[in-house]
Amino acid sequence: MEIINTIGRRKTSIARVYVKPGKGTIVVNDRELASYFTSEIHQTTVKQALTLAKVEGSYDVTVNVEGGGNKGQAEAIRLGIARALVTINAENRAPLKKEGLLTRDSRMVERKKPGRRKARRRFQFSKR
Q1: Banded pLDDT at 128 (limits 50, 70, 90)
Q2: What CATH number corresponds to the domain at position 33?
């Protein structure tokens, strides 16, 4: 089996994911998973698709991710891994879809409007 290449997006993060058979190492931007994502929650998020498909130690994952913050990047990687696992084996689709890992979360930050402090927040009103 060759390298499976997929993409995952979340907010402004874009993750290019490469999955191949191996020992279960996850490398993000040329760093180990634990050194890139220091938070245990983000590490669990990245591994969630592998855990649900019950293939945690059988694939090496290499990721190039850019844009956004830690949470957005972790969820973008999760989507990319889930898509790759479905490409490898179609039987993985049902458990991953049930948990909502194959759906691209399309929520983005609303743009700032003119005459406002933020997207919706107005300046403080003063009657006098």
Answers
A1: confident
A2: 3.30.230.10
